[in-house]
Amino acid sequence: MAAAQRIVIENGAIATVDAGGTEYARGYVVLAGNRIEAVGAGRAPEGLENVVRRIDATGHLVTPGLVNTHHHFYQWITRGLATDHNLFDWLVALYPTWARIDEPMVYAAAQGSLAMMARGGVTTAMDHHYVFPRGSGDLSGAIIRAARETGVRFTLARGSMDRGEKDGGLPPDFAVETLEDALAATEATVREHHDASFDAMTQVAVAPCSPFSVSTELLREGAELARRLGVRLHTHGSETVEEEKFCHELFGMGPTDYFESTGWLGEDVWMAHCVHMNDSDIAAFARTRTGVAHCPSSNARLAAGIARVPDMLAAGVPVGLGVDGTASNESGELHTELRNALLINRLGAHKEAALTARQALRLGTYGGAQVLGRAAETGSLEAGKLADLVLWRLDTLAHASIADPVAALVLGAAAPVTASFVNGRQIVEDGRLLTVDEDAVARSTREEAQRLARITAQS
Questions:
Q1: GO MF annotations for this entry (predicted)?
Q2: What CATH number does residue 397 fall under?
Q3: Whose C-alpha in 13, 80, 90, 105 is 20 to 30 A from the C-alpha of 4?
């Protein structure tokens, strides 16, 4: 790193979220190129060469960038619909609209989803995209292009559905792929876009949608495909009591046992929601190191229930946070999930002992990196890791009287982002994106939402 250009951040509070939970009331972070070179207490070391910028972080908390572990970007253009539905009714109401998306819609929706997350401190994002209407264009390419332009680190979970209404599934038949087409398209996406390198900006996972929208063959062969290609696996699991009933009626077992029977438990797997998990389910996830994307706002919006996150963490299950699709979490922000994860879990059996503010921050940073298989590269502020970090301003009216900066960030109002760095590149300054025109994105998302509404009404 001797020849790399350096950025020095100093005088701020620092929460490293390393294994020991190291924090500094006043400290520094040195970035060299796209890596973190040093983190420590007090002022940065003297005599550093090639320092191109110094940032005074007085009044700020410096943390790892937030990591989003579950999302559906295309839903950005169907926000505010079916607002009083449970999951199954909500899906039935919205699938006819979603089945009419096309490439320009998906690109605009991805831009909107990514912009909202990035300006709120997300440095690593993912998208679980599983709706591929016939003739709709290169949807995966459009999503990846939007992520590249926004400047965030990104995992595309290439989803699929092959169980339409005629086969007992929820999606309309014209919105699903055949088994063969889904597997072929998924493999092609991995081969074209997945980067396995340490500092990869784009990775791809294999991600059949859910037990009630894909066949057993697609789950089983999808798992085999992912392991043959050396990529991760993602799906929805144990989200609602209706799903539990569906699995028992169709497969004669609950979701976790069903997933295990198809090869879908393992340290290369993470599942969204996992709300309705019994003790044996949690033990199976812990034994296999299967990860969980906890989506507290979406779970509440769809009245799915309260996931047993404290019990999962106690058992050793890797857990991260997810925004989920913005048709069930209209804010589209991950930093609000820190607060909601803590508050909602305290309504459960563990009450005030459920989660602490620091556990919530860990879920949104290191926990998410674990779930995405990138904990060696990001998720904590440690020398040698990638330069993905955020400066949160905490000296304004909203937070200035809270002495503990981590409590201020998690429990207080949404903190302004003064600066966000991804791979050593600044992408946010004073709450505004530096990489894309937010106003232009807002216009295009509104136009594409209106176009989709017109097409749906005409159909």
A1: deaminase activity; hydrolase activity, acting on carbon-nitrogen (but not peptide) bonds, in cyclic amidines; metal ion binding
A2: 2.30.40.10
A3: 13
